[in-house]
Each structure stands twice: as C-alpha cells, then as structure tokens.
Design goal:
- There is one protein chain.
- The chain is built from three helices and 38 strands.
- With 632 residues, the protein is mainly β.
- It has a single domain, classed as Maltoporin, Chain A, CATH 2.40.170.20.
- The protein has a 22-stranded antiparallel beta barrel. It has a six-stranded mixed β-sheet with strand order 2-1-7-8-5-6.
- A hairpin with a 2-residue loop joins strand 5 and strand 6.
- The chain is globular, with a radius of gyration of 25 Å.
- It starts with a helix and ends with a strand.
Length: 632
C-alpha cells in the first residue's frame, strides 16, 4: 500500500479547515450518537445501536447514499458521523430496523485555507496533522482533505506502532442543479498485535496491568482501510436524480490476535490465533429518481430506486498457538514465532434491491412516508474443506413512518421498518459445519415525541421495539436459528444551547434485552442478551468563557453487563468522566486553536463484557493536547 499512500498524500496536501479538535457537543443534533474527528459522544456508536451490532444490517450511508462497508471511513474526509434513530430516521427513503449511521463528507470551505497542527494524542502518541480547503474563484470546483501522521502511536491496551491517515474530497458543481462529489481515503497502521481477555470460570477476573501488551513479542498487525467513491445529485426537468458508487477495502498483511484465559486469582494462559493475510472487498451502488407533485396544500413525493452490493470476504484456517501460563502481573513466557499453514476459502454475497416510495406532506402538520423494497440475497461460500455451498433468499421489505406536528414546537412520530440481515455460516464446531445460513428479517416499531423547548434546545423521546431471529447451537449439535431476541425500551435526548455560551447534549436509554427460543427453554442459555448495557446515560456540556476559552465535560454511565451466555455473572457498571478545554487565539495574524482533553479522569478500570463473551479492558486515564494554526 506504500505507493498508494504516497500518491494520496501528494494529491491531498490541502483539505478541510477543521482538524480533529472541533466540538462534537456543538455539532450534535441529538444525544443518539455523534463523532467529530476523535471526539465521540452519545448513547450509540458506529458499531452498535440500541444494543444491536450493525455490521450485518446494511445500516451505513455516505451523505445519505447507500454504503456497504468493509472498513469505516477515516477522519481526513469526514465532517462528522451521526447515528439516526427516531424522528431523525423517519424521513429516510431506505431505513434500517436498528438505526442508520451516516458518514458526512467534508465540503470545500467558502474561503481557501490550510490548517497545520500537531502535539500529543492519547497515551503520548505523537501526531502531525494538516487539513485545508481550496476552491476556484467561481466556486464550481473545490477540494478538501488532509492527513494525520502518527510516527509513534500508543493505544490503551499497551499496543504500540505507527499509523497514517490521508484522504481528500473533490466537489464539482456541473450546473446550478447538478453536483458531483468524489472522495478517497486511506488508513494504514502497523503495531505489535491485538489481544483480549476471556474468563476461565464464571467470575470477573482481576484487572490487567495498564498500558501492558499481553501479546507475544513477535505478534504483529499490519492492515489498511481504503475507501473511495462518487456521489451525483441533480435536478433534471423537475426530477431529482441521485447516483452513487463506492468501493470499501480492508487489507491485512498480518493480524495476530491473542486471547488470554484468566481466572479470578489472576492465573492466565495465553493462546495466539494465527491467520494469514486477508483482503475483504465490498462494492455498493445506488440509483434513485424522485419527483414532487403539488396540489394545493398537499405535496406528493414518488420515488423509485435500485441498490446493489457485492462483498468478498477471505476465509482462512485460524491456527491456535499456545503461548503458555503466567500471572496477570507478569509478561507471557517467551515463545517461538510460528509459520502459518492451512487452507483458504471465500465468502461472497451479492444483493439487489428495488424500491418504490411514496411521501405525503400536508401543510406544516403531517409528513407520511411509505416504502416497499423487493430484495434478492445470494450467498456463496467456498469453504475451508473445499466444498462450495450457496443459498438464495428473496423477500419484500417495508417501511412506514408519520410525523404529526401540533404546532411549530411539538411533533409526534411513529415508524415501522423491516430489514434483511446476515447470519453468516455454521462454525466448524457444528455438525452442519460451513452450511450457509439464511438471512433473517428484523423488525422495528417505535413511537415518540419531539419538542422544541426553546428555538435552540430540542427534546426527543421514543419507545422502541426491535426484534429479530437469533442463531445458536441446537440440542443435536447443529448451528442455526434457535429463537428470537427483542430489545424493547425507552430513549430520550436533550440537545442544543441553554444560552449563547452554554451547549448541552443529554441522553439516556433503558431497554429490556430478552432472548427466547429452544436454547432458553432447554436451560442452555439465559433469557437476557450478553455483552450489552441495558441502561446508559450520557451528559455533555460545553461553556464558552471569555478571551477565546471554553470548557467542556462528558460524564457517561453504563449498567452492568452479563458476561456469559447462561447469565451467571456480570461485569460491573462503568462510569467515565472526561474534561477538557479549548482556546482560540491569534498567532502572528493567523487563527490558532489549542485543545486539551483528559479522558477517564477518575481512572476507572476493569472490563467491558462483549457479545462474543470476550472481555475488553477499559481504556486507562489519558490526556491529549493539540495545537493548530490556520493560514488563509
């Protein structure tokens, strides 16, 4: 990837004026999830919404265009990332039952500029960053982008290495009603291996050493994320036309992963899982035409669209390599570096979806949307045993939503969405190993209210019910559908400005994650989902002081999580506090920004339980400090 990295750096030496120091608090429209640069807030993130993993849901968008990702987009091309649920998802032409994550591409700024900066990111990571924007005098053509170079990077688990981000966005205003946008981004990194913990008995083990890597000395991760694509938006004789095409790549030359089995006394045994290099590629495209017809106080929107995706995921034998026994306060014993030997396979998915949509708007009171989507899903697996298996599923999906506005301040909303989600293949330990599993249909109901407390402060709340079939081992040892999981709950958000100087984002969610089916009835698993917090609260505030200073704080609380499938023990609840400050000032006639942020100020330690039963150490206390200067 080195030649591609150099070429990208040469072409996007300038970009957007916003380094990763801008405020997520002031960018957030609600408390359901917002990321700006390396600052993240809200109840949900890019990987999990309302307790569900999003990777198999088709829930990703780029500037509202359908995106099937193999890897996420990186900071240099992004203005931000937002999670859309509730009223902010009700108007989507192609919603997802678990919510939608929208990547917002950067736009060339109104004035040409170049911002350079550097300093320390988390855990004393050295960084040099540059972003900027340039447009022609008539603003018809412009570019935005930049790079982030970390020659020495450290992460919370104690892993160390180097990383490089680069990317750019180009925009061409073909006519007053036609815009073409294209982007490319690369995130390249190499470091000394990944690791996680796993309980050896039904009890939470002792906390690991902070900043300590439990991988063997020879362990390595060498991987890159590459994304590129184009989006066209135009109005042709009153008909809106939207076209998009994306390619997303995850390319790993090596990805050593260590699992440390740990008991409640701190006795550990490490096993490294050795895999060869892999490349996952996902292509996706969308074409949509829509037109609005007006009759007095009524506006009718009709639309037709087609979406296509094809993904290829490399499969390979994973070889367990015993590293040995040790104490959690010590390093794993020395070991010899093995050479991988095994078999390879390929997982290919192709999906085509045709949609028809209708929308109705009556005055400023009623908004209604209905969509029908016919989809064909085909999965082919070239298994590690040399056998090729395949499956085809065709189904019709639906969505309906309505927003009723009582007045300019208060609205009620409701929605119903169905969606098709992947379930993968049966694992090697099953009697039906490598069998292609049919996708499942998920369903979501919700009803809620949005109220403008003031012109700058908005309250949103919703009751939701998201359900889908779930997979697991059956009593005969086969793997497949065994029941259903449902998350029913209440979420609330208050976001905006309390005053001209103070912005807040407050959020809370509580839900019941219930599992039903044969495994529960047989007593093999518990009736509550594992690895998720069913109660989350998040408080964010930023206050502007005088002389360019502002202070901010984030307090987050996550309830205890079941750590095992039988619901025997939990990881404790977690409270995290972050505090920071910004200073905007003039430096030699140029605008400058200083940002300092302390994360996990109270030094909370322990583990996050995950749906895979693995235990992830909580990131320890850290401070970042960055300064940037804008020219132009």
């Amino acid at each position: 990837m080195s030649r591609l990295k150099a070429a990208l750096l040469a072409t996007v030496f300038i970009g957007s004026p916003a380094l990763a120091q801008e405020s997520a608090v002031r960018s957030a429209a609600d408390a359901f999830g917002e990321r700006v640069g390396i600052e993240q807030l809200g109840l949900y993130g890019e990987g999990q919404v309302r307790g569900f993993d999003l990777q198999g849901t088709g829930a990703y968008r780029i500037d509202d265009a359908y995106f099937a990702r193999a890897s996420p987009l990186n900071d240099p091309v992004l203005a931000g990332v937002g999670v859309r649920v509730g009223v902010n998802a009700a108007r989507l032409a192609y919603p997802s039952p678990s919510g939608v994550v929208n990547y917002r591409l950067r736009e060339p700024a109104a004035t040409n500029s170049l911002t350079v900066g550097g300093g320390l990111r988390d855990y004393w990571t050295q960084t040099l960053e540059a972003n900027g924007s340039w447009s022609t005098d008539d603003a018809r053509f412009g570019v935005a982008g930049g790079f982030v170079w970390r020659p020495s990077v450290s992460w919370g688990p104690g892993t160390e290495g180097k990383a490089f981000d680069v990317g750019g966005v180009a925009r061409w205003r073909i006519t007053e009603t036609q815009v073409l946008k294209a982007f490319v981004s690369l995130y390249d990194r190499k470091y000394d291996g990944d690791y996680t913990m796993k309980a050896a008995q039904p009890a939470v083990p002792p906390s690991p050493q902070p900043f300590f890597n439990y991988s063997p000395e020879w362990a390595t991760v060498d991987a890159a994320n590459l994304n590129f694509g184009a989006i066209y938006k135009g109005d042709l004789a009153g008909t809106s036309l939207d076209l998009s095409a994306f390619r997303s790549i995850y390319d790993a030359d090596r990805q050593d992963f260590t699992v440390v089995s740990l008991d409640d006394q701190g006795n550990a045994f490490a096993t490294l899982f050795l895999s060869p290099g892999k490349t996952n590629v996902s292509d996706s495209g969308e074409a949509k035409a829509s037109r609005v017809f007006r009759q007095g106080d009524l506006s009718h929107l009709v639309s037709a669209s087609g979406r296509w995706r094809k993904s290829k995921v490399d499969l390979a034998t994973t070889v367990p390599v015993p590293i040995g026994a040790f104490d959690i306060d010590d390093a794993p014993p020395p070991s010899d570096e093995p050479v991988w030997a095994g078999k390879r396979g390929l997982d290919t998915v192709e999906q085509v979806t045709g949609s028809l949509g209708y929308g109705l708007v009556w005055k400023d009171r009623l908004q209604f949307r209905l969509g029908a989507h016919r989809t064909r899903y085909e999965k082919t697996v070239d298994t590690l045993s040399g056998v090729t298996t395949s499956g085809i599923d065709e189904t019709t999906l639906w969505n309906a939503s309505a927003i009723w506005s009582f007045n300019d301040r208060t609205s009620l909303f409701g929605s119903w969405v169905t969606g098709l989600e992947e379930t993968g293949i049966a694992p090697n330990t099953a009697t039906n190993r490598n069998e292609v599993l049919a996708p499942v249909e998920a369903e979501q109901f919700e009803v809620g209210v949005r109220h403008a407390v003031t012109s700058q402060l908005t309250f949103i709340s919703a009751l939701f019910d998201v359900s889908k079939p779930t997979t697991g081992f059956r009593p005969d040892g086969s793997f497949g559908l065994v029941g259903e999981v449902a998350h029913r709950g209440l979420e609330a958000s208050l976001a905006g400005q309390l005053s001209a100087r103070t912005s807040v984002v407050l959020g809370a969610v509580v839900f019941e994650p219930k599992v039903t089916g044969a495994l529960v009835e047989a007593g093999m698993v518990g009736d509550e989902a594992i690895g998720i917090s069913d109660k989350v609260a998040n408080f964010n505030v930023e206050h502007q002081l005088g002389d360019g200073w502002s202070l901010d704080a984030q307090l987050s609380w996550y309830s205890a999580r079941w750590a095992d499938t039988k619901n025997i023990y939990k990881t404790p609840d977690v409270t995290l506090l972050n505090v920071g400050a910004r200073r905007r000032f003039d430096l030699g006639g140029h605008a400058a920004l200083f940002r300092v942020l302390a994360s996990n100020v109270t030094g909370t330690d322990g583990y996050w339980a995950s749906p895979s039963t693995q235990l992830w150490p909580i990131a320890p206390r850290t401070v970042r400090a960055l300064i940037s200067v804008t020219f132009g």
